[in-house]
Amino acid sequence: MRQPEVTADEAGAAQRLTNVLRWVHMTHLVDFMIFMPLGPQLLRTFDMPLTALGQLIFAYTVSAGVAGLALGATLHRFSRRRLLLGVYAGFAVSLLLTVTASGFGALLLARVIAGACGGVLSSLVQATVADYVPLERRAAALGTVMTGHALASVIGVPLGLAVASASSWRASFALVLVLVVPLMIAIARHVPGVAPAAHAPEAAGAASGLSTRLRGLAALSPAFALTFAVSASAYALGSYFAPYWVGNVGVSEAELPFVFLASGALSLFTSPRIGRLADRWGRLQVFTGAALLSLPIIAFMSRSGPLPLWLAVVLGAGFFVIVYGRWIPALALLSEWPSASQRGGFMMVNGVVTQLSMGVGALAAGAMIAFDESGRVSGFERVGDMAIVVTVLAMVIAWLLARRMARRAPR
Description:
The protein has about 400 residues and is mainly alpha-helical. It is built from 16 helices and 2 strands.
């Protein structure tokens, strides 16, 4: 289908929309990303065993998956603006409960709510971009939104860790909470308030078409398998990056923010360009190139011993930029899979798969590694080998998915 020409006003509105979504994306990512680096403080505060951290992360991802699946079935009933405002308000509640948690049970409840809202936010942001940005500029827009990860790394996480060091871990989450109110105002102003009637075709698509697709799992499996492979391979390594970099590579906890600062600064430059490359040269080609580039980085970082600080920062930043950068062309490729009427529900379910994949990757990695008395991580090279194998599988799946879409009649 030929896309209509976009006026200057429409282009400006789309730019403002993507900028708002980028900051919304950043805030919930900071909440998720900062949790692991704050692990030692959390363990001391609540006198928890090390395994409790894994339980909290898994509870977050499972909650995100279940909530995303539930919302995906009713996505067509509400405008994107109303959904974003409601979910973001729930995210604010989770932050408040995290700040005031008095024990493991209260913290677990807070993280379950954070997972439900954060996971839905992630997929809802993606669905909003897919709905309101034309196909020929969609990968670039997704690249802009995905710089929320870079902002979280370059601003959110280092600042949050500095605040936690100067005050307490509670202050870090309180700082994120402060940002929520102005962003809710921005959502109300810049996210289109499309009436539910405008999504009427999606009602049938989400209720019947989506369930039909789920029943025909053989047809959907390449798309969800690609999501699983990209997410699980990244988070199997990323979930334990901080303890490995501190215990094995020799980066102190005070120096760890430099890695996130460097990776975030670099991603601010690379993420939009990866999106534009995908728009120009093709989603499959750019994803394959990024995946191939990630293989030696994964192999080297998962086997690294003590490194000078500058090299530890460069290698760590390269890992985050390349491994997580694979998501941009992959997500753009996946957005082409469903019909326009089904895209919102499909992207929401795909977000569920993403969250569950993250949890599975973290649990699988946790079963393969151990912490010795000196704080060093053993078995991390096996996690790297697993991530390499899964990445190669992701390239095969992406090729099969692109080939199947090429055989379909134009939508």
